[in-house]
Amino acid sequence: MRKPFGTNELLARVRASLRRVPEKTTEFIEVGDFYVDFSAHKVLVNKQEIHLTPKEFELLAFLVKHPDKVLTHAVLLQKVWGGYYTESPEALAF
Question: Does any domain span residue 17?
Answer without folding.
Answer: no
